[in-house]
Structures are given as C-alpha cells and as structure tokens.
Amino acid sequence: MNTTALKELLYKMADDQLIMGHRSSEWIGLGPLLEEDIAFASKAQDKVGQSLALYQLLEELGEADPDTVAFSRPAAKFHNSIFTELPNEEFDFSIMRHFLFDTAEYYRFELLSDSTYEPLQQVARKFTGEIRYHILHANEWIKELGDSTEEAIARMQSALDKALPYALGVFEPSPYEQKLIDSGLFAGEQALQNIWQDKISEIIGQTALRLPAWESIEPVYGGRAGHHSEHLQPLLDEMGQVINSEPGAEW
Amino acid sequence: MDKILDPRLQRLTLINEPLPAKPELDQLPTFEVFVKSRAARPWRHEGSLHASTLEMAFVFAKEQYSRRGTCLGIWVIATHDLFVTDYADNQTDIYDQFTEAPGCSGEAWEVFHMYKRGTQHTHAGQVSAPTPQAALACARNALERPRPVLNAWVGAAGKFRKSTPEEEAMWQTTPEKLFREAIDYKTNEKIKAFKATQS
Amino acid sequence: MYGGGYLFEKTSPDLLKEEDQEKLAAFEARIDRGEKIEPHDWMPKLYRQQLIRMIEQHAHSEIIGALPEGTWITRAPGFKRKLGLMAKVQDEVGHAQLLYSAAETLGKSREQMIDDLINGRSKYSNIFNYPAYTWADSCFISWLVDAGAIVNQVANSKGSYGPYCRALERICIEESFHLKFGHHCVTYLATGTPRQRQMMQEALNRWWYPMLMFFGPPDKISAHTEILMRWKVKILSNDETRQQWLDMYVPKIWELGLTIPDDKLRKNEETGKWEFTQPDWEEFKQVINGNGPCNKERLAVRRMAEKRGEWVRRAILVKASNKKYVTPLA
Ligand SMILES: [Fe+2]
Ligand SMILES: [Fe+2]
Asked: Where are the domains of chain C?
C-alpha cells in the first residue's frame, strides 16, 4: 500500500468535508425558510461528521488527533479545493455550490466503496446513504430555483457560471494519481469527473439554466497543493479562535 | 447598537429599519408528515411543514421529523389532500357518521385514526373506494379499531410521497449521530475528579 | 427555549359574557376532565387569542434564541463542540418550526407572525436581548437558560391545547440533549484551566440576574392570569418556575465550584423556598420595551434573514402546485 498517496487522498477529502461543513454552518439560524434552515444545518453536521471519520483514518495512519489536525494547521497545509472555502454569498451561490460539490462527493464515496484500503472502503459505504440525501436535497433545489421566476433563473445562472471553474478544481489531479489507480485505492479524479459531468448535465438539463461547453471552462486548481484563496486563512483563524486561545486545555 | 459579536453577522448587512409592508405574504402551502420509526410501529403523524412542492416537502420532512433515532421511512402529503372528519364526542365513534357502505372499489386510500385527544394520528390501513367518505364507510368494516375513533384522516394513496426501499439508506447512519443525543454528554467522571482535587 | 414571563393581554371579562354560555360550560368541563382541546373544537375567543399570543411568543423566542448561541457556532472549540452546538441551534430553529405550526392551527399564519416579529409588533423572551461575549456565555445559555425553558415547557406540555402539547413533547425530548450538552460544556470550563474557570465565572456573573428575570416578574406584581390558569393555558406561576429552577440548578452550579453573584442567596429550610436578591425589574421593563443591549440587533438580523430569503420563497412559491393556503393539522 502506498501510504503517502493514501494520506494525500484522505487529507483532501477530509479537508473538503470540513470546510464545506463549516461554510454551511454559517447559515444556521439565518436560512431563507425554517424548514430549509434545518435541512441545511443537517448537511453541515453530516459533512463535519464525515471529515471527522476521515481524520480518524489518518490518525490510525500515524497523523495527529483530529482536533489538532483540523483546528491548528495553517492554510498552506490544507488540501481542500478552493471551491469549498469561498464565502457563502447568497443562497443562490450556497445551494449551487452544494449541488456541484455534493454530486462529486456522492460519486467519490461510491467509487471508494470498492477501494482496496478496507478502512476507507468501510467509511465510504457507511456514508453513501446519508450523502444520497444531500444530492436529493440539492437536486430538488436546483430543479425548482432553476426553473421559476426570472430573478431566480438569472441568479442561479450567474451562480453556476461563477461556480463551475472552481467546481472543476475539485478534480485537480493528485501527484499520486496513477499510483492510486494502479493500487485500486481510488478510481482517480478523471473517472470521477466524467461521471460527475454526466450527472450535472442531466439535472441542469431539466431546468432553464445553460451549461457552457465543458472544454470552455478553465479549472481553478491549487487547493490540493495548499495554494488557497485569501478566504481560507480567516476562516481557519475564526474556527480555531477559542480552541487555540488556551493550548492544551480541554473544552 | 452595541458591537456585533457574531463574526457571521459582521460579514452581512443588517437591516435596522422596519421593512415596508408586504403586498402579499410569502405564504407557502402546508404538508403533513408521517413517520415509521420501527417495524412494529404504525406510521404516525409527526407534524406539519411549509414547502412548495410535494418533493420539496419530502426533503424538508426528513430532517425536521426524522433526524434522530431509527426511521424506516416517511410519508408526506399536502394538507389539502387529506379529508378530515369532525371530532366525535367522547365514547362515540366517528364511524357512526359513515354507515352508508357503497362499493368498496376504486382508488386506494390511506386511513389514519386518532383515538384520544392530545395524541397523534396513526395509520389504520388502506381501503379502496370511490371517494374519501366512501373510503371511511368501507374502512368501518375493513380496518381494525381497538376502540372508538375520535377523528379520522383519509388521503388518496397516490397523493403521498412515500420513501422508497432504496431510500432507507438515507437513515442508516442517523442512530449513530450521537452528538445529537443526551447520552453522549456524560459529566460524572469529570465532576468526581474535580471534587477530589478540591477536598 | 423559553421561560415564563409570557406577556398576556389584559383579560376582559366582557369578552366572556359575549360567548355562548352553554358551549363555554362544555369547553370548561372538558378541560376540567383533563381532556385536550383540538383545533376544530369550539373555544372562547379569549382562549384562542391568548394561546396564539403565547405560542407565537414561544416560537419567536426559539428563532431569536438561536442568535446568541449562534454567535459561537463558527468558533466552537473542537469537533465535539462544533457538532454539538450546530445540532443544538438547529433544534431551536426546529422548535420554532413546530411552534409556529401549532399556533397556525389557531388561525394565524406563520408569515403573519414573522411579519409581526420583525416589525416589532410581537414579543419574545427577554433573555435573548443579552449578548454572548465569550464561548462561556454560550455554554451558560445551553445549560441554564435551556434548563429554565425546560421547567416551563414541561409544565406547559400538561396544558389544554392538543397541538401545543404535542409540539412541546417533541421539544422536551430534544431539550434533554441541550441540557446535557450545556452542562458538559460548563463542566469542562469550570473544571479546566484557571483561565477557563475565570471565563465561566464571568459568564455566570453576567447571566445570573437576566436568568432570574427570565421567569418573569414576581407573582405579586404580574398581571392576573387566573382564568388562563383555569383553562390550563398558563400552568405554573412565574415564582413557581423560578423556585423550581433554583432548586434544581443552584446545587449543580455550586458543585462546580462556581460562585453565584448574590451573597443573600440561600434556601430557607422552613419555607422550603429560595431567598435571593431581586433582579432590577426596572431593567426588565426597559429591555422588554426595546432598550436592552441587543434588541435592535436581534430584529435587524431577523429582517436581514427575511429579506435575503425573500427571492427564494417567491421563486419556489411559483412551483407550488396548489397555492391555496390550508391551515396545517399539526
Ligand atoms: Fe433548547
Ligand atoms: Fe428550544
């Protein structure tokens, strides 16, 4: 087993889930409708919960404990895609990001359900059920907002246009891509992206939204290698403010 | 206004002035949610919610009414698609009002009973009939009722959004979300150790 | 969460004289027998009006109550706290959802209630007009403000209105998690490092008197609510809930080595009642009338949320297959 490649995979997944969950938690109590507030809050919890499970796998591989890893690394040591760290903006961007991200996440976990690394295989199998809800939720929102009032369609279109280059950044290839594929740890970013594009096209096709030609979109890479936007470090500072105010304390 | 302490709010623009009166309130339709928590338990009414469509109501229902414990599935229906009887007086049976039994065939209807004031409606069973009233007349003989029924609801089976067997997986990890449960926050040991250092 | 100190309208006996006396007697007999009233039952106007008012205030208190703790949601220290606090605040939003539904069955729409809240025509629990300066304030709220709410909610769940009782039963189950979560958080601070301890002590100092006010003014100076008690709308008096809370939680606060900022606080063994320094009831009045430290911010936040969500609600409203509103069955 190639531990370096595996760790890289686990870190980028865990960091994606954590940052995505953290951003979603910013909506709690402030959502557009009470019912949606609750649904969104559950998604936030699920993503943070999944990140915890992945950090625990890393701990078993010799990394520090999840609280240390999640709350005290600087931005340059985070491997999440830039997509997840962007500010929430309005509900249009937040829900569009969920749709694009959750779809990738679902199929990533599905592919990993066959991973040759058994602990990861188990985590992936365990979570596909709850992530199924995440895409049910996101798809329904996209179908409704993407085909309703003029204002909503315009908002969702511009959210889609803005999100797509970053969404493609989720599939930034790992330096160990071929090793992961050869060892059967993971089918690889390209395989995932192919599935993802089909699913995204299928849902967007049911709305009044327009999807540009995939080749015309320039992916925003960098996150996987620790090159982030200006938004990540402030997010991390905020997240770690209390826990880092008294090192060694239990909270 | 004092300084805003919530960093989330510092990034947003609050509205200090009263909003202009709305020409019309954003009034969404309402839906009713039924949950089956265990195999041996009947579907039970858990509450209502606001949503646009039946599918969106289903999405909302899952997290508002089944985010803890075990759940085998949910049913959701628009409130206006439920036929609601009067409330019977104590000791009388609402079925006394539905004696005219027509042909018990046609559409399928789900029937729910309330046996006691203050309790939840539970699923009594399904019958076939041409109308909701007829469904009750048919249910009168076809469905079991251990005691007189105080109030009944009837909805066409086809008007429900019912979770599918494959969707059961969505609830698979719910019982493991212990961070939502009192049981995961034990303090005894910590307090005992603290007291030991104090004395 | 919510406490006593609900603001009831002055009850006018005239309103009762206009009612059908026979129906009124049957209604009261039903309540006396311990039976619940259900939405389609006949009920006096005063009962409907006061219930709407009470449940609506309770619902508002839940969504406004999500704000002071929400202050710390992005800064909760560590996975356990992060997940716990998210779930806790989510529950409060869920409580608002349940309670608005219960109030809706009485004939007032949720949207109207929210409109009344954000435009200052309605009240909510006073305690949420105080700020959560540190993580420890948030812990105080989770444990002790929720504990106060539980005393009240457990009592109210034995009230006479079916949909409200059903909502409260669901709520009380979730509150047991809030209480344990809050106590766990406070315990870790109080038994932690000197700085953590100090942080917790300071929060306790800030919240003690608002907490005593949470239950409402002393019975001898609060509005008469006999008829509401007879109809089981209000179950326990303000003093009763306050005493219950003191009885249950003062020993638990002391157990953690924290100091309650009142040297007069003691239990009178003869009367069985707690004696304490009265909070400043003039401050209470000021805060109720909009002059607390956070009243303006709380409403400004709700308005912002309302405004930000408007296009979303309008857009999905277009998708609604049946646009006619029907009162939910709750
Ligand atoms: Fe609570
Ligand atoms: Fe609550």
From this structure: 27-302
List the one residue out of C160, C181, C165 whose CA is nearest residue C80: C181
- Nearest by Cα to C28 from C230, C288, C176: C230
Q: CA nearest C139 in A: which residue?
A: A251
Cβ-defined contact of A243 to C78 (cutoff 8 Å): yes
* Ligand number, closest to the Cα atom of C168: 2
* Domain spans of chain A, in order of start: 3-245
Phi, psi of B161 (to 5 degrees): -100, 110
Give the C-alpha distances (Å, rounded to integers) separating C328 from B33, B163, C325. Answer: 11, 21, 9
Q: Do A38 and B63 count as a contact with CB atoms less than 8 A apart?
A: yes
Residue C84 C-alpha, separation from nearest chain A C-alpha, in angstroms: 9
Q: Which residues of B touch C70 (CB under 8 A)?
A: 6, 8
ipTM attached to this prediction:
0.97
* Å from CA of A20 to ligand 1 middle: 26
C27-302, what's its fold? Answer: Ferritin (1.20.1260)
CA of C95 to the centre of ligand 2 (A): 5
CATH superfamily of A3-245: Ferritin, core subunit, four-helix bundle (1.20.1260.10)
Q: Any idea what the Cα angle at residue A115 is, between residues A111 and A120, rounded to 5°?
A: 100
Nearest CA to B42 out of B135, B115, B137, B133 is that of B115
- State which residue of chain B sits closest to A25, comparing Cα positions: B8
- Cβ atoms of B129 and B164 closer than 8 Å: no
Return all residues near A192 (Cβ < 8 A) that are at least 6 apart: A104, A107, A108, A111, A171
The domain segmentation of chain B, as residue ranges, is 28-178
Bridge-based pairing of strands B161-162 and B73-78 is: antiparallel
- Burial tier of C288 (Cβ tally within 10 Å: 0-12, 13-18, 19+): middle
DSSP bridge partners of B32: B48, B77
d(CA B148, CA B95): 8
Q: Give residues 195 to 234 of C whose Cβ lies within 8 Å of A.
A: 195-196
**What separation in angstroms does the CA of C65 have from each of A8, B87, C125, C271?**
41, 36, 8, 34
Hey, which residues does B36 pair with through a beta bridge?
B73
Top residue of B4, B26, B30, B56 to mutate, by most chain A CBs within 10 Å, is: B56
Pairwise CB contact (< 8 Å): C184 & B185: yes
**What residues contact C25, with CB distance under 8 A and at least 6 apart?**
none
Chain A neighbors of B53, CB-CB under 8 A: 140, 144
Q: What is the pLDDT of residues A72-123, one digit of tens each?
A: 999 999 999 999 999 999 999 999 999 999 999 999 999 999 999 999 999 9
Distance separating alpha carbons of residues C102 and C118, to the nearest angstrom: 20
Query: pLDDT of chain B along its 199 residues, tens only?
Result: 568 999 999 999 999 999 988 888 889 999 999 999 999 999 999 999 999 999 999 999 999 999 999 999 999 999 999 999 999 987 799 999 998 777 899 999 999 999 999 999 999 999 999 999 999 999 999 999 999 999 999 999 999 999 999 999 999 999 999 999 999 999 999 999 999 998 7
Q: Quick check: B53 and A144 CB within 8 A?
A: yes
- DSSP classification of residue B29: -
Q: Which two tokens stand for residue B130?
A: 């041409």
Q: Using CA atoms, how far apart are residues C71 and C134, in angstroms rounded to an integer?
A: 9
Count other Cβ atoms within 10 Å, centred on residue C317.
Answer: 17
Closest CA to C240 of C125, C148, C164: C148
Inform me whether the C-beta atom of residue A63 falls under 8 Å from chain C C-beta atoms: no
Structure tokens, B144: 């079991």
Instruction: Report the run of H or E that residue C223 belongs to, with start and end.
Output: none
Residues A11, A8: Cα–Cα separation, whole Å:
5
